[in-house]
Each structure stands twice: as C-alpha cells, then as structure tokens.
Amino acid sequence: MPIDPSILEAAQSWLTDFFDPAVKADIRELIEKNPEELTDRFYKTLEFGTGGMRGIMGTGTNRINKYTLGKSTQGLSDYLREVYGPDGLKVVIAYDCRHNSQSLARTVAEVFSANGIGVFLFSELRTTPELSFAVRHLGCHAGIVLTASHNPPEYNGYKVYWTDGGQIVPPQDQEIIDRINRLRYEDIRFEARQELITAIDREVDEAFINACVQHGSFDAPGREALSIVFTSLHGTSITAIPEVLRRAGYTGVTIIESQATPDGSFPTVKSPNPEEPEALKIALEKGAEIGADIVIGTDPDSDRLGIAVRNAEGQLELLNGNQTMVLMTRFLLDHRKKAGFQGDEFIASTIVSTPMMQAMADAYGVECKTSLTGFKWIAKMIRDFPDQHFVGGGEESFGYMVGDFVRDKDAVTATLLACEIASAAKSRGSSFYQELLQCYVDFGCYRERLVSLTKKGMHGAAEISAMMREFRENPPASLDGSPVVRIDDYQQSVSRNPREGTTRPIELPRSNVLIYTTEEGLRLAARPSGTEPKIKFYLSAHQPIEDTEAYPVALQELESKLDRILEELNLNG
C-alpha cells in the first residue's frame, strides 16, 4: 500500500540524530517492508483519555515509548513549573509488572530530574492505589504510575495524578496537553540529575498498608472462619493484599501460587482482566476444591477486583461490578447509619453504572453524586465538596473506593471490605450472596449487561465514530416495546424528552456518551472507550421483587428483556 505523505513525513522526522539508532532502524524497516504498520504507528499521537495515556508499546507517535512518555513528562514538568514555580517541586512515580514498566519509569524520573524536579521513585513495582496514597502522604505536587491496567501484554500506559491524589481533570488535563503539544521531541530533557531521584519502598508501604487496614476494617466477627482464595493475576497486588488481610485477622487465605509472581506476559491467562470470567478460572477451581467462601482476583495494577461467592445453590458465582458496588455501599451506609448520619454524607457512581445506587441513596436519605465514567471524576467530587463526607463509591467496571484516603479505584482496601462483608454475614448465618439478594428486595431487582465491540486501528476508530454518529442521528424510538422518553447527549450537554419536545441542560463536562431511558426505566448507554479500541454499550433493566425467593424468576425475566434489546439493536456481536 502507498504511504500517505503526511505519515511518511511524521515517520521521517524520527530519523534525526536525536533518536536512538534502534528506533531509526525500526522506522526504516517499516517504511520499506510494512507501510500498513507504519501508518498505524504514526497516523495520530497518543492522547490522554479517561485513564491517562495508554497504548501499544513500540516505535512511533501512536505508541508507548521513551519519546512519547518523555514528551508528556517534559510538558508536565513545564506545567508544574508554571503553576507552582521552579523551586521545591516533588513528584512520586510507581510502576507495575508490565514489560518495560521499570525502565520507562526510570526514564520518566530522569526527565523530571533534568527539569529540576525532585522525584520519589518506588524501588520495585507497587499498586496504583499506593501511588495515589503516596502523592498526599509525601506532599508531592503530582504522581505518575506506569501501567496499562487490565489491557493485554503488548500495552503500557502513563497515568497522571494531581496534588490531591486523584487523576488529572479539567482544566489541568487540557492545559497539560496544550503544553505537550507545543513541544518537539527534541525539547525533551533526558540528562538526569541523579541527586534529585530518591528510592522509596518500605516506609511508604507501611503507611499505606496501615491505612488500608484502618479504613477497610469494621470489626467483622468470624474472620478466622472465612475461607478466601486470592489471585493477583501476575500483578502488583501481591505486594499488599496478603499482608493487609493478615493484619486484619484473616488466616484462611489461599494464594494461587502459579499466578503470584509478577509477570508482564501474564502466562496463565488470556487477559489479566477480572471482568472476564476466564481470568479467574484457576482461582475458581481452587475455590471449588477447598470449599472457599469467597474468591477474589485483581488486575495488574490492583485497582479492579473480581469476586465470586457461594450462591443459593452453594456454587461459586462470579458477581459483576455493579453487584459488588451495591453491596459494598450498603455495608458502608449501614455502619455510617449506626454511628449516626450527620446529614453531609454522599455516595458516588458513574452515568453508565447501575441506577440502583440512586435508589439506595434515596432509601437511606443520603446524596448520590453521579459522574462521567472514570474514577478521576469521583476523586474530583471529594475535592469539590470538602464539607461533605464521602462514604464510598464505585463504577460498573469492577472498581471501588472506600473513603477518601486513596483517590482512585482501590482493589486493596476493597478486597478487605469484601471479606468483612462475607465474614460478618457468615457469622450470622447469612452470606455475601444472600445480602446482595436482600438489596434487590429492598431497592429493586436490577440487572445490567455490558457489550464491548473491539475496533482496532485507524479504520476501527472511524467505525466507532460512525456507530456513535448513527446512534446520535437516528436514536432508537423504543427499547423492548417501551418508548424512549429521555435522550441524554453528554457531548452536546443536552437532555431531551422526545415525547414532549422539551430539553434541559446537562451540567457535567462534555463527553461522547449517549444514554436512552424508556418509560418503564430501561436504559441503554453508548460510549467509545477512552483507553481501549472499543465501543461499549451498557444496558439496564429492573423490576420489584417481594422476597429473595422471587429472585430466580425475576432474573430470568430481566435477562430475557436484555437479550431482546440486544437483538433489536443488532448488538449480539
């Protein structure tokens, strides 16, 4: 295939003496032998999405490498110096188990130091929640974690945290991007000042682990009787979760040793994503073998967790992120209620997560704040409302945050919280699963479904854009026979009632998300992923049930309803 002149020009700009010989050799080979791959590597520049900058590792502007990360770090350094002045600046850097994470973290540290910025660099891999914690614990102006979360092995990424320990949000994100876009790659300062780089490890670990135990413990009885199977899926959580559980008093913990060694190839799983049942297959088999009460697995950087518990038939059943979020939130609200509500409490969730969070908040008389997708927005809520008490919150993508000592998804503390719920329930003759069913009785039986369609490369991005345009220009008039009565277009910041012809503004920041709600409360949301080459569709349906015995029939009815909606929208893959 012929190479587009603009792409060839972009690629040839990497053939100067500034770039490493291996990089130049790689580009020359791509120009001669693989124009299609060259096009994919240079047709765009990686940008910050909902989770920072994330992409495939390799040479090119559309890849993660020392130059794309170096340019981002140079731009962030310039921005920090403009905002806070040149003196006394500090950042903290962590990295996960992925290939090249350690060397890329070192490169990022060296660029910061070359700009006169002090760097605390973890000496070994650490979890993302510990990085978030460390920003405030060490009094830093920013933090970086090198991770691609749950993406496949060829990916890596770069997440930026601000002084509050949360990920960057507007206006900082765009201001930083503007600084980055002003730069040439030749503007990157790679000449490290080693005296400004300080290795950190156990002192911060101790503070973080103690904080996790403090915020995740609720004096649950029967901890020693709870049988737990835990897998770190070759990721970073092995550095924290076993110790947190031990200090909290859980002695019946079985660790999946074949997945305990950090390894960026993730050799025992197709994908290290606890959202996917296959990832927990080995742990589930061990749980069935030993009769475990609960099975927990975390993703590579330990911000997401997947949970399986014994269902009504005694079989281990994987829960989804909405289910664990609902039960964790109820547990926290119950404890807050016992202590006495102060009237300033709030819980948090996202626009594509289960509406059950709002129903629960209404029942408890607390506020439920709803944000765009991504925990950076929940962290921003805490910063924006300092006079209110954040109880806890989560999103459907298997993330949860307990209190505000960590300002991002925190699978370390959430793992302890899940065990507290399971232990307390078991001690009174109930179970994690039974407590979830009681939530359905009390707040309505909700069922959600997520469909993700992968569309890779430049053509995939165009296809995703076309699908969103089609949904925006030709919205469904009904879902499963129920008329659509509200269309929320977050890109246009408008909520429209097609039946009445009325509109109202949406106060949240603009985002390419569409949500359709029907007369009976069915809901469909559509959005492109900010971190993966995917378009995602989220469905939700609900109905009341009188008791837990009614759940199986209600579940079947709701699942059939979701199946019909997918069929009529042609979203069955």
Q: Kindly name the structural category.
A: alpha/beta
Shape: globular
Q: Any idea of the CATH topology of the largest domain?
A: Alpha-D-Glucose-1,6-Bisphosphate, Chain A, domain 3
Q: Helical element count?
A: 17
**Uncertain segments:** none
Strand content: 15-25%
Gap from first CA to last CA? 30 Å
Class of the largest domain in CATH?
Answer: Alpha Beta
| Biggest sheet layout | 8 strands, antiparallel
Helical content (DSSP H or I, runs of 4+): 25-40%
| Mean of all residue-level pLDDT scores | 96
In the CATH hierarchy, the architecture of the largest domain is: 3-Layer(aba) Sandwich
Strand runs, count: 23
Any idea how many domains? Answer: 4
- CATH 4th-level superfamily of the largest domain: Alpha-D-Glucose-1,6-Bisphosphate, subunit A, domain 3
Keywords: Isomerase, Magnesium, Metal-binding, Phosphoprotein
Family: Belongs to the phosphohexose mutase family.
Protein name: Phospho-sugar mutase
Domain Alpha-D-phosphohexomutase alpha/beta/alpha: 47-183, 207-308, 320-440
Task: Kindly summarize this structure in a few lines.
By secondary structure, this protein is of the alpha/beta class.
